[in-house]
């Protein structure tokens, strides 16, 4: 009987212990498993009472294995002590949990810091590269500046050399001038003043119209468009050239021949260009430039200057037969002009263009030449226009070339004016003179292409045309 009781107590105790442990585990798991409640069913074996229940008056015999209230209170104390420890441990665990969170935060912060550091590092790297590039660029610029400086120094030195050379040449020129003056003086003493060749008077006309001027002499060294024109100063001694009209350009209009450009215009041709003419009384064909773009067209151009590409300092034979290029500068020939103008009553139009592109005109109501036996004497009608009348002073004058002096001057005007013209002594215009670039020119004897009433004797025109057409 006692054994059964003891066994029952033991079972009770173990169950209670398990219950305690169960609660401990629940607390440790922070209530995550609330569902798992600590529940126990105490199975107490059914006792079979087979005899009378006796109660001992002396009490049960002391059993060393018997659980007493003291034991239970001890266990409770132990249990409460363990609970406190568990609470302490829980506290520690909580603190540890905070630490872990802090650790996590710190780790996160650290990651952020790392990322920021990486970013800063990249920026720094980029900055370093950029600065290196800048420094390279700076070095290149420095090199260029150095090169430019050295080039500048080289040019400055070259300029100094040229300056020196120029001053030397200027000194030579001065010496030459002095020498020339001395020689002239000596010449005067040797031959006497009266034996010196006469010099024609300069044009004294004060022009009504003065073309705009660029304010400087452009021909101190003569500018020619090509090398065919003579350099200034060499013409005095150079013989006149002898070649005549050049080979016709390929754009020649082969229809015709017509008697003049007015007939070409009447035949329905409206574009200016090269045409074939056959004048009455002449045998051969002649090529001319027909101007149809001016004053209703029909103008036969017999003289044209525009770029200095043709030398006009030529002999009688050249001026008689003609020379130059039909689509450029040319002289149609005195014989051709004579034959043209004797076909009827013709008027003359002189077109002048200055160096700013302004064009002026001089028109003469009639025009023809006399025969070669009269040295192609010029016959003009009355003037009208806006260029001024500079050609009337040549009216009635025969034609003069370097090799055939027919002018009214004691010397040869062709020699001084370097062309061929109906010189008087020598006259107010020189449209077959030297083509100077730029307008105002320097010349001892006024040999430029001048029209005294438009610019005076020292303004060489840019382009000139002389053309005829039957009188309306
Ligand atoms: Ca003469």
UniProtKB/TrEMBL annotation:
Coiled-coil residue windows: 131-158
Ranges where the Fibrinogen C-terminal domain occurs: 252-472
Record's subcellular location: Secreted
Signal peptide, first to last residue: 1-22
Protein origin, superkingdom: Eukaryota
UniProt xrefs under PROSITE patterns: FIBRINOGEN_C_2 (PS51406)
GO molecular function per UniProt: extracellular matrix structural constituent; protein-macromolecule adaptor activity
GO BP annotation list: blood coagulation, common pathway; fibrinolysis; platelet aggregation; positive regulation of heterotypic cell-cell adhesion
CDD domains tied to this protein: FReD
SMART domains per the UniProt record, alphabetical: FBG
UniProt keywords, alphabetically: Coiled coil, Disulfide bond, Glycoprotein, Secreted, Signal
Keyword Cytoplasm (UniProt): no
Any single GO CC term annotated in Swiss-Prot or TrEMBL for this entry: fibrinogen complex
Protein's recorded name: Fibrinogen C-terminal domain-containing protein
Organism: Denticeps clupeoides
Lineage, top ranks: Eukaryota, Metazoa, Chordata, Craniata, Vertebrata
